[in-house]
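PROTEIN DESIGN WORKSHEET
SECTION A - STRUCTURE
LENGTH: 759
TOKENS:
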């Protein structure tokens, strides 16, 4: 009997980030493209073997990419923007991804609600689509040479179009009739590769709130693609949410199977009846592809048993919820992790074992497990049992505090608070400040890492940090900035810094996940109830305040951002975890205020990232996200001014939610959009103060005084000077001191000029 174990996709960056390293070497012209290709091949083979050795029957192919698989799909279709047309193959690919001396890179954006970013295809009516199937065909042959018969992953035509943009701003779906013939040709080519081939067509766009237009295209598209040849098994896959609307259509097409995510799209259950009637195969996504926790195998078996009451057992396949691209690769390099915690975790390689074991037990019974598999299964039961009761996870004290919590907002109405604050803080209209971090010099990074490695003492480390803070303050004073910051030299990352000091937070050595191209992130993880053993920022901020007569801003990361940039425990609802973090932060704010800090900024850089994919779930997210921001700042007295910062510019849909957060001042990222995006603040009669970034910190360019004067004038057309702050549009840590100094001096000069002109 076949095992029917399946995986949607595997990470490609390499368990030691080998792909990252070779790409960066190649881009720096320190190795040839041959070296890149050689490594790519090694990685592919290694990853196929991982899957095969773990007993996965449906091994993934064409999930590998040198940069991004949407970009690969654009190349496959010859959807190449004009500005890159004359480049040779090798140069072409990376130029599209990263730009070159003549042309800007293509845009990059978030892959649904993950932290992966894809290249946005640019389509035009003049495009001449033609098939370039060599990557896929070659990979199939490479795998076959290794004795591996793989399923071929493709990005579906509707998802490709749905994620693209048209250079003339028209609707991408209009181009479907041009693209579909290429997909048909591709499938024909693929069908020649073997007696039977399985093709997985990813259509995650189906999980969004679909326009009737898109829904109407599903049937004609898949009717056409499924009848190309009769030796092909076509599986259409979605993930990250339920796709019931699309499933209802897909069951009436001749495709062979449907892949659904039963973890993040529990509602998929509603379509089982239909799937069963249509005799489609069902790929059951139940091993979490985007989190790090061990699967609860017994629960998975129970879910499968329920599903098999409706869908014939023989039609089921056991799979990951989505591509394992979104999880780290292997636990084997985690040498420093707490032994207990490590038993609760599975990365991609360990998840393969879980898929295999679940499918073996489900189809063949527990006795079919070999010795090693039995051991893993027993450990799994044990680990899940421990996780339910472990004291390092379950902290009664924290749970009681959350349970009895009653302070949901700060005292006083904004209108009264702001009067009091202006009296005490005495800042002028168009007050100048920065977002928090100053340039992170090599020396600062070295000191932090030396301290971590214990090669310098705590004293030595603190002295170095304090020197940095001193310099940072002197510069700000000389420059004439009004509200100062300490510069954040002690922080490697705005989430990790807090995670390291909160109880309930863990860290990995090698838990890297691809973010885009060669870039990876290593999110910390929340394993248990969160509390704050001691103050986290008070010493640094008090030190900084003691060095200046001006006001020093305290600097914290908000609860929603901390949550959204971590792997979160899956044994508690996210909103409860978020509330625990919020309460811990409220204690920090109280301590800062007691230490004499008068302005505290609570960054919510990732507030928007947490938005659900489906409209129907947005209210619920907004409710608890706003609740928890307000809890975090609830300890602030009326005279303590609360700032927040957000790294985006589009507030049109969420302006009321932002207003409800009730911060006194919000700084935002508008530098690149003039004053257009600010207008919404006026339209809705937004009352709180706003600091729209007046220059773009993502570029080393120093904006001139004149430029910033004009920018400020644009802002003043929309909001009155009493309501405006002047600041850069994000933290300065990625910039160099040189350009930072010049830019901030120009910014202050621009403000002085405007003030003079106004009097
Ligand atoms: N305070 C942080 C900094 O300046 C904010 C960073 C961010 O918004 N991403 O670095
Ligand atoms: Zn920012």
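SECTION B - SEQUENCE
RESIDUE ASSIGNMENT:
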């Amino acid at each position: 009997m076949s095992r029917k174990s399946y995986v949607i996709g595997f990470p490609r960056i390499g368990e030691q980030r080998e792909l990252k390293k070779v790409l960066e070497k190649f881009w720096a012209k320190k190795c040839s493209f041959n070296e890149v290709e050689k490594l790519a091949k090694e990685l592919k083979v290694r990853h196929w073997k991982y899957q095969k050795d773990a007993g996965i029957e449906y091994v993934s192919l064409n999930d590998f990419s040198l940069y991004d698989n949407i970009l690969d799909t654009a190349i496959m279709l010859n959807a190449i923007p004009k500005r890159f047309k004359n480049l040779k193959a090798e140069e072409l690919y990376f130029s599209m991804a990263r730009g070159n001396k003549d042309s800007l890179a293509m845009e990059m954006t978030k892959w649904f609600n993950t932290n992966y970013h894809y290249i946005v295809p640019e389509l035009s009516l003049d495009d001449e689509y033609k098939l370039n199937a060599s990557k896929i065909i070659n990979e199939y042959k490479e795998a076959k040479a290794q004795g591996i018969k793989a399923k071929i992953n493709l990005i579906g035509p509707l998802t490709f179009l749905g994620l693209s943009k048209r250079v003339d701003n028209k609707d991408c779906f209009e181009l479907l009739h041009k693209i579909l013939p290429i997909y048909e040709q591709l499938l024909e080519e693929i069908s020649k590769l073997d007696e039977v081939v399985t093709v997985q067509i990813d259509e995650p766009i189906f999980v969004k709130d679909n326009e009737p237009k898109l829904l109407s295209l599903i049937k004609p598209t898949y009717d056409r693609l499924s009848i190309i040849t009769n030796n092909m098994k076509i599986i259409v896959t979605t993930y990250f949410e339920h796709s019931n609307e699309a499933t209802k259509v897909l069951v009436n097409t001749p495709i062979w199977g449907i892949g659904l995510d039963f973890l993040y799209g529990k509602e998929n259950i509603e379509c089982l009846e239909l799937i069963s009637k249509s005799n489609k195969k069902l790929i059951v996504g139940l091993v979490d592809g985007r989190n790090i926790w061990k699967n609860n195998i017994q629960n998975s078996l129970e879910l499968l048993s329920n599903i098999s009451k409706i869908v014939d057992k023989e039609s089921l396949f056991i799979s990951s919820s989505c591509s394992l691209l979104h999880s780290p690769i292997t636990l084997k390099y985690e040498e420093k992790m707490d032994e207990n915690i490590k038993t609760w975790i599975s990365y991609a390689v360990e998840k393969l074992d879980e898929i295999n074991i679940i499918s073996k037990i489900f189809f063949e019974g527990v006795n079919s497990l070999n010795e090693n598999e039995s051991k893993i299964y027993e450990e799994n039961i044990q680990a899940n049992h421990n996780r339910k009761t472990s004291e390092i996870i379950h902290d009664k004290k924290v749970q009681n505090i959350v349970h009895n919590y009653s302070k949901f907002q700060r005292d006083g109405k904004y209108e009264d608070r702001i009067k009091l604050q202006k009296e005490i803080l005495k800042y002028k209209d168009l007050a100048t400040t920065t977002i928090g971090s100053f340039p992170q010099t090599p020396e600062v990074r070295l000191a932090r890492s030396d301290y971590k490695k214990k090669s310098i003492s705590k004293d030595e480390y603190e002295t170095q940090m304090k020197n940095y803070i001193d310099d940072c303050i002197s510069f700000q004073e000389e420059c004439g900035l009004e509200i100062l910051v300490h510069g954040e030299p002690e922080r490697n990352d705005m989430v990790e810094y807090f995670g390291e000091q909160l109880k309930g937070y863990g860290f990995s050595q090698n838990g890297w996940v691809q973010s885009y191209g060669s870039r990876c992130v290593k999110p910390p993880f929340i394993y248990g109830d969160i509390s704050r053993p001691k103050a986290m920022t008070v010493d640094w901020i008090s030190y900084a305040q003691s060095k200046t007569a001006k006001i020093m801003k305290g600097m914290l990361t908000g609860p929603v951002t901390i949550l959204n940039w971590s792997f979160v425990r899956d044994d508690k609802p996210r909103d409860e975890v978020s509330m625990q973090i919020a309460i811990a932060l409220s204690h920090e704010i109280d301590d800062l205020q007691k230490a004499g800090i008068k302005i505290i900024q609570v960054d919510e850089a990732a507030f928007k990232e947490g938005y659900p994919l489906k409209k129907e779930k947005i209210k619920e997210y907004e409710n608890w996200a706003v609740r928890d921001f307000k809890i975090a700042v609830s300890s602030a007295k009326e005279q303590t001014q609360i700032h927040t910062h957000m790294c985006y510019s589009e507030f049109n849909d969420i302006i009321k939610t932002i207003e409800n957060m009730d911060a006194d001042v919000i700084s935002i990222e508008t530098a690149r959009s003039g004053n257009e995006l600010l207008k919404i603040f006026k339209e809705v009669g937004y009352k709180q103060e706003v600091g729209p970034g007046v220059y773009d910190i993502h570029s080393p360019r120093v904006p001139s005084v004149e430029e910033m004067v004009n920018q400020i004038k644009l802002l003043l057309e929309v909001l009155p000077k009493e309501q405006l702050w002047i600041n850069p549009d994000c933290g300065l840590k990625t910039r160099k001191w040189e350009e930072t100094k010049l830019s901030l001096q120009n910014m202050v000069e621009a403000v002085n000029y405007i003030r003079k002109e106004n009097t």
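SECTION C - NOTES
The pocket of zinc ion (ligand 2) is lined by residues 435, 605, 645, 647, 669, 730-731 (CB under 6 Å).
The chain has a mean pLDDT of 96.
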